[in-house]
Design goal:
The complex is a heterodimer of chains A (115) and B (114). Chain A has 115 residues and is mainly β. Chain A is built from no helices and 12 strands. Chain A has one domain: Immunoglobulin-like (Sandwich), CATH 2.60.40.10. By secondary structure, chain B is an all-beta fold. Chain B is built from no helices and 11 strands. In chain B, strands 2, 4, 5, 6, 9, 10 and 11 form a 7-stranded mixed sheet that branches. In chain B, a hairpin with a 3-residue loop joins β4 and β5. The chains are: A mainly beta (115), B mainly beta (114). The interface between A and B is medium-sized, with 25 and 24 residues.
Chain lengths: 115, 114
């Protein structure tokens, strides 16, 4: 079965600085990868997804992620963060081992942007 | 507006008192699921449903029940809640259970069992 590791539970950063949130998944022949964001007191919403094709995926709010098959990673990046990016970010992988596709989530990374 | 609606948003209850958390989606999605979110553990799937009258256990089903009598509704039932079920619960839906489809989440239900 798939598993997802988010290497940092919390990432503090100053406004306008770049940020990288790290995500590694266990290997699989075929995998779909997702990043979701959870703003305070809200549900999760999709930031971006990798299904196939180009390994660099662009999402909403200026975020992007790079799929690296050899390193089984899918790190999320933003070149310049805003206060409004403060949220919890979840990496997820689609697991087909159960006979259907289901999402396996990482533990989450709490991004705190400071002025 | 396309959305997944959960009710209630907040609930405090006592051990053993049956409760139901409702979930409704207006996108005609086939696939619905329930997750619980706990600090340091991310989201874990409780139950899922492929379509009407088709439900199955996820990774942490103990102490929960679900039903899917209509396509749009997928209630989560705790017959006899216990304090270890204190958690943040999310309902999600997607067009079909394919791995490449986006999941839409409700706002969450924060449950406290005392």
């Amino acid at each position: 079965a798939q598993s997802v590791t988010q290497l940092d539970s919390q990432v503090p950063v100053f406004e306008e600085a770049p940020v990288e949130l790290r995500c590694n998944y266990s290997s699989s022949v075929s995998v779909y990868l997702f990043w979701y964001v959870q703003y305070p007191n809200q549900g999760l919403q999709l930031l971006l997804k990798y299904l196939s094709g180009s390994t660099l995926v662009k999402g909403i709010n200026g975020f992007e992620a790079e799929f690296n098959k050899s390193q089984t990673s899918f790190h999320l990046r933003k070149p310049s963060v805003h206060i409004s990016d403060t949220a919890e970010y979840f990496c997820a992988v689609s697991d087909r081992s159960g006979g259907y596709n289901k999402l396996i989530f990482g533990a989450g990374t709490r991004l705190a942007v400071h002025p | 507006e396309a959305q997944v609606t959960q009710n209630p948003r907040y609930l405090i209850t006592v051990t053993g008192k049956k409760l139901t958390v409702t979930c409704s989606q207006n996108m005609n999605h086939e696939y619905m699921s329930w997750y619980r979110q706990d600090p340091g553990l991310g989201l874990r799937q409780i139950y899922y449903s492929m379509n009407v009258e088709v439900t199955d256990k996820g990774d942490v089903p103990e102490g929960y029940k679900v039903s899917r009598k209509e396509k749009r509704n997928f209630p989560l039932i705790l017959e006899s809640p216990s304090p270890n079920q204190t958690s943040l619960y999310f309902c999600a839906s997607s067009l079909y259970p394919g791995g490449n489809t986006e999941a839409f989440f409700g706002q969450g239900t924060r449950l406290t069992v005392v």
